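A brief tutorial aside. Many learners find it easier to grasp structure tokens once they have seen a single protein encoded end to end. The record that follows does exactly this for Signal recognition particle receptor FtsY. Read the sequence first, then the structure, and try to relate runs of similar tokens to stretches of the chain.
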Amino acid sequence: MGLFNIFSKEKKETLDKGLEKTKENFFSKLGKAVAGKSTVDDELLDELEEVLITSDVGVDTTVRIIERIEERVAKDKYLNATELNVILREEIAGLLEENNSGNAAEFELPADKKPYVLMVVGVNGVGKTTTIGKLASQFQRRGKSVVLGAADTFRAAAVDQLKLWGERVNVPVIAHGMNTDPSAVAYDAVKHAVEQKADIVIIDTAGRLHTKVNLMNELTKIKRVIQKFVADAPHEIMLVLDGSTGQNAFIQAQEFTKATDVSSLAITKLDGTAKGGVVIGISDQFKIPVKYIGVGEGIDDLQVFNKHEFVDSFFN
């Protein structure tokens, strides 16, 4: 158990604080629903359903949670409203357990994949480039050599922002500027990573959902060119979603999972919002592991998603 594997007190405090608004929103609604009720009856379950849906857990996931609670109520006849908290906690933990097998290791990389090629997708404004910068910093602090590829070439700001992060965390950024061919940038970034024997190369890609076909073609082309250097690349395609957009994040996840093989998720901006329930719904609906969550502005506030700690912070 390395130093970084321990979920530190500071990280826990950041997580608690980051989920504060979500928690307050959820439990004030839950409190109203439970007030004056002594048993878990159909009326209370209807109200609970509304609480979950309006907390951005999503309709399908809410239905699953309600069904699980109904089963328990049928089995344990004596359930009362005050126990609802405990049951809810257990059922939500159970759902996350099913959908995120194990907790992701703390910014570790598989030893047999070098360079590890991580392609990052997501629409503009979700915190994609910032997430990449924070990831670069975290890996670098753990002694890993990192290369960044600025292949989001449709936005001058994206290229410049990535270069700034490169300077800030002292990692090389391969960029060709704006309106250049994204796959050429990705090609050079992976080539550089191979030549420099880097541990990880992170490629920022364009966040346009203008048409799914264009996006698909572009991402497929990027994959094809980087496979000239690393046959099984990309090893991971991470979709970044802005948690504060609630249901909109579901729609983006739908679009991107149709366009490319998304293998992990990062959900950002959870600290300023009451919509943190979206983490539960997205994890359940897409069966793609949530790997990182953003719970603050600082570099360390991009945390590896630890579902046990998440549920604990949510219900504590």
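Self-check: Confidence is low (pLDDT under 50) at residues 1-5. If you spotted this yourself, you are ready for the next section.
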